[in-house]
Amino acid sequence: MELKLLISMIRKRLWMIIVFVILCSSSVGIYTIYFTTPIYEASSTLIINKSNMDSEGKPTLDMNQINSNILLINSYKVIISSATIMDKVVKSYPELKVSSEDLMERIKVITTQNSQIITLQIRDSNYEQAMQIVNAIGKVFKDEIPHIMKVDNISILDLAKPQLDVQPVSPKVKIYIVIAFVASLMLAIGIVLLIEYLDDTIKNEQDVERYLGLTTLGTIQKIKKKDLRKRSRSRSKEQAGEKYASVSQ
After folding, report:
1. Could you tell me which Pfam families the record lists for this protein (predicted)?
2. 40-158: CATH number
């Protein structure tokens, strides 16, 4: 199919495409803004930083110890998400009103390769609730590690803090609207091309030349009812004038 033909098909029903895209994009925007629950995210940071002491009692940098701490990261990720830690959080912080199963599903543990940093993230429809949960998990994990691993090498680097103007991480209204715009535009163009492809009626001289390969000698314009009424009136006036002229003679 020629490019010019595709463009002419789209131009013919451009109004349909515009209306469809506007309706879809507006609907997605309205639904996202007014009918979806915003989700907020709170995070806290832990660090594995047990250090050795020299003869004077000062901490020293031991690369072997750092490498050992890094190797413990994967074990700590599993321990943080375990039922042992979550049960302790639920028991120690009953005001959170959450279950250990819920916490195990919602906790997100992020680590970076060759880093001693562990980031905990929790999402909730209320930022204050997310902040309290993630801080509680971090504190319980720090307190329980010495009993589980027999080593005290976890420190809390940063706790989630209250924010005055916290922004939700979901839904992303602008991104959803852009996706709806692109998707509806492609769908509308596809529907228009399908309609044009299925429509095999001949409407103008271009269609005659395209489908029949014949040259048109002339065309009959479409006559509207109001045009017929105008012509009948003009004829009546002409006939009345002729009669009046014959009587005058």
Report:
1. Wzz
2. 3.30.70.1130
